[in-house]
Amino acid sequence: MVDIVSVIPSSVYRNLFDKLYEKRKIAALEIEALVRQLAGIGDYERVATLIKALAKEMVPGSPSNHRKGGLIGASGIMVGMGTDASRFLGKILEPVFSCFSDPDSTVRYYACETLYNIAKVVRGDLIAFFTQIFDLLCKLSADPDSNVQSAAHLLNSLVKDIVTESDNFSVEEFIPLLTERMDVFNPFVRQFLIGWITVLDSVPDIDMLGFLPDFLDGLFDMLSDPLPEIRQQADSALSEFLEEIKNLPSLDYDRMAEILVRRAVSLHDFTRQTSITWMNELVKLGGHLVVPYYANILGVILPCISDKEQEIRAVAHEINEELQSIIAEQSDGINIGEILFIATRQLSNEWEATRIEALLWIRNLLTRYRSEVVALLDDIFDALLRALSDPSDKVVLLVLDVHARIAVDALLFHQLAVSLLQKFRIDQSLLHKRGALIICQLCVSLDAERVYRDLARILEREPDLDFASIMVQALNMILLTSSELYELRALLKQSLVDTAGRDFFISLYSSWCHSSTALLSLCLLAQAYQHASCVIWLLVEEDINAKFLVQLDKLICLLETPVFSHIRLQLLEPSKYMCLLKVLYGLLMLLPQQSAAFRTLRTRLKTVPSSLSSVEQLNMSSDKNYDVGIVNERNFDPMIQKFEHIRNQHKIRYKLKLHPVSSESST
What we know:
- By secondary structure, the chain is mostly helical.
- The chain is 70% helix and 0% strand.
- The chain has helices at residues 10-16, 21-40, 44-57, 64-81, 89-98, 105-122, 130-140, 146-164, 171-179, 187-201, 212-222, 228-245, 253-263, 269-286, 294-304, 310-329, 336-345, 352-368, 370-375, 377-386, 393-406, 410-426, 428-445, 448-460, 465-481, 486-493, 499-512, 516-525, 529-538, 546-558, 565-570, 578-590, 596-606, 615-618, 637-658, 660-666.
């Protein structure tokens, strides 16, 4: 056991552990002088004995004044040793370090003061103990006592100076110390860590940028700190690193992209803005090097295009354009499937701008990598069909453009037609709200005749007769009213004298049989008046129901539109177009007398020259051809049989709906 009195005079001993600081200070100066004398003669053994004795006084549990005296004595020893102080640095630091966790704040304060004095003496030799010192400084930065914090701040500044001027500091060993503390929430600790990051980054010989991914996540965490000072300091540090990145030839794009992607979906606006600002630079700097991370980046950029913050939206658009330009030039290494999946997933985003950009990505991929996209069509087709129900017309038009580009191939075109009808079957509200827009846009983007022919072929075999009727009525109304389908109407008007028109008429006929009024309007448009009159005569009680009359009312209204101007003009020559008059009078007879449609049609028929519109004229020989030059070129019998066959199917269906049990029993 070492007796301290055997090393220093008893008076010095008493003063060193006195309650008064002045007496302890005097004792420390005397110890400093004694140690300087011992070092001068090379008596390091007595110095070691003195250190061991003081360490005994600084152990936890000893009186507070003894711990304070031991600390100030330790300062005196190291100052007295001068240039040889590092000889005993390890032995004296060990007891000093133990005082930093002392419950007495004044002891912790003196521990800071002692370590400060020791650091001033040994300077660069302190680096060997940097790990322990950094840990102590980090804890002291959040010390509850303000005096201890102030002392720790001075000590921290000195240690920073020592580190920045040292050639022995290892940033590789420092980074783990830093990163394991970056997830703390204490504002004082955060300020402490930012301070060290900033200081070390300012040293030319220390490459903090090379380790940026290790602590970047932590800095982004601090951007959402409740205290504005912390946010400002973190932002300043990040801004400095961003400027340095612009001059860096290489980066760890993998880790950087992972961090930035995660932060770009932060609920904190400033964090989100900073992350995509960084991402913008990453994409610009990396170019083709960021291709492996395309999908992940795109996955956060597309939602940011609709961000509530204008600055975020602007940067997101810029990144999106940059990605588009890179993919237009780059082909190697691009995972089309992942990008397509990300874009397709955003079709359900709540914001229109994001959905539009997602569709533009799908369209561009389809243009640039058609074979790859078509190979993955099963993965995206349902989503594209669902997008037809989008509330935005802009989105729907773009969806249709994508569908049209896919449907260039005959097989894919048929798949689209089948799927589209299935979509309308399931969601008939879509047919009523958007049917005209969808069909017309497809006709514009693709070949209109091809669209109608394919839809007609599918509907001809449609097992759901009710849906077939509804769909045919919709297609017929679109055909008769849409300006985009003017050429189709012109083609049908020539069906009696033109082979192409005749073939098109025949291609629609079978499916149009699902709706009597649609078939009548088709015949009127094609000027097949004799056949239209036959259709009217075949109608019976079951056919003339409320739905039929509603559709017939629409047809009468259409007869007054420019689409049927040829009919109105032909009424000026009733002797030549007797079958037309028979059709119109037949329609008049089917209409309820009190209806507006009845009055409209009757008014129109009254305009026909009276001398030529008598009943006698209508009773002219039935075997005479009044549909200019048609009967010899078209055999209507099979068509009439087709109409009757389909009409009978609808009758059976109607009876089953009225009497399902009795019908099944009789069967």
